[in-house]
């Protein structure tokens, strides 16, 4: 089906308004490859008709489906390797130390070292974080801490992706792509031709829908936020607003982890980049 120049521009604008995603002039194929099934399902005769329908008064289900179809779901367990190695080696130990200090200095209830995975797709990142925490705790049984002391909030704009994440069931290829055999045997159980996440890890994570293109709701404060491979899809204005929200969401001295190809330079000066092993972590001022 032909995508006219007018429809391409209208759909680029609509997608940007819906989820903040910037579709480049050279990315016409993203529109045609991902939205043509939406046209067929809604019996729309053209991309121009889709653009017009998105502006209708009763278009919310259609808008949601366009967002579901267009947003990137590329993810894997322990993606890029070194960030999760650093979680186990230094970041989670630092969170544990801070948590114990807080609890020793006050009688008030402490919610734990809260972690937010802000664009979790089908859940692999959140489960990778939970495995890193569990690995550390297994190596330090005398700390008196459990997974419950590291509650994880995992959010994404896609309801379909979140449904997969909540189920916690992945193909053998998904698991082999990023999970070492030792972690697989410890945190997964075979289920037919797939692998299911251990219930201990599933209980440690709350999955919730959240559109990072919208003003962030009150989520409380966090000790660690992962916002990896998100900023590269937003324009500069959206990046600035999102970084402001992430700054508010972190406690002073909290850790922010972004993608390896991303930078906060020229976007915000409210974080201090620090090299930890093979990764850069941004410390909230």
From TrEMBL:
**Known Pfam families for this protein?**
CheR, CheR_N
By its UniProt entry, which SMART domains does this protein fall under?
A: MeTrc (SM00138)
Tell me the ranges covered by the CheR-type methyltransferase domain, including all copies: 1-285
Q: Which domain of life is it from?
A: Bacteria
Top-rank EC class of the record's enzyme: transferase
Q: Which PROSITE patterns match?
A: CHER (PS50123)
Keyword entries, A-Z: Methyltransferase, S-adenosyl-L-methionine, Transferase
Please give the catalytic activity noted in the UniProt record: L-glutamyl-[protein] + S-adenosyl-L-methionine = [protein]-L-glutamate 5-O-methyl ester + S-adenosyl-L-homocysteine
Which EC number applies? 2.1.1.80
Could you tell me one molecular function GO term of this UniProt entry?
protein-glutamate O-methyltransferase activity
Electron transport recorded as keyword = no
Respond yes or no to whether keyword tRNA-binding is given for this record: no
Query: GO biological process: what's one of them?
Result: methylation
Name used for this protein in its record: protein-glutamate O-methyltransferase
The taxonomic lineage of its organism, from the top, reads: Bacteria, Pseudomonadati, Planctomycetota, Planctomycetia, Isosphaerales
């Amino acid at each position: 089906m032909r995508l006219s120049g007018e429809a391409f521009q209208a759909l680029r604008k609509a997608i940007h308004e819906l989820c903040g995603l910037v579709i480049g002039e050279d990315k016409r194929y993203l529109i045609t490859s991902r939205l043509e099934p939406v046209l067929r399902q809604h019996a729309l005769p053209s991309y121009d008709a889709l653009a017009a329908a998105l502006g209708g008064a009763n278009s919310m289900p259609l808008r949601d489906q366009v967002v579901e179809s267009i947003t990137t779901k590329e993810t894997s367990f322990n993606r890029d390797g070194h960030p999760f190695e650093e979680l186990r080696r230094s970041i989670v130990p630092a969170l544990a130390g801070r948590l114990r200090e807080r609890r020793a200095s006050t009688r008030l209830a402490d919610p734990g070292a809260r972690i937010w995975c802000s664009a979790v797709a089908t859940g692999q990142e959140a489960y990778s974080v939970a495995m890193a925490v569990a690995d550390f705790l297994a190596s330090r049984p005398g700390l008196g801490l459990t997974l419950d002391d590291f509650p994880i909030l995992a959010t994404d704009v896609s309801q379909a992706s979140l449904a997969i994440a909540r189920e916690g069931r992945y193909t053998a290829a998904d698991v082999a792509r990023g999970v070492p055999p030792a972690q697989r045997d410890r945190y997964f159980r075979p289920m037919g031709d797939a692998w299911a996440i251990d219930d201990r890890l599933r209980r440690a994570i709350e999955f919730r829908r959240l559109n990072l293109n919208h003003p962030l709701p009150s989520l409380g404060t966090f000790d660690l936020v992962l916002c990896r491979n998100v900023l590269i899809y937003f324009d500069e204005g959206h990046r600035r607003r999102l970084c402001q929200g992430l700054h508010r969401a972190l406690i002073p001295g909290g850790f922010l982890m972004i993608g390896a190809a991303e930078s906060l330079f020229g976007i915000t000066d409210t974080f201090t980049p620090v090299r930890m092993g093979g990764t850069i972590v941004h410390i909230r001022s």
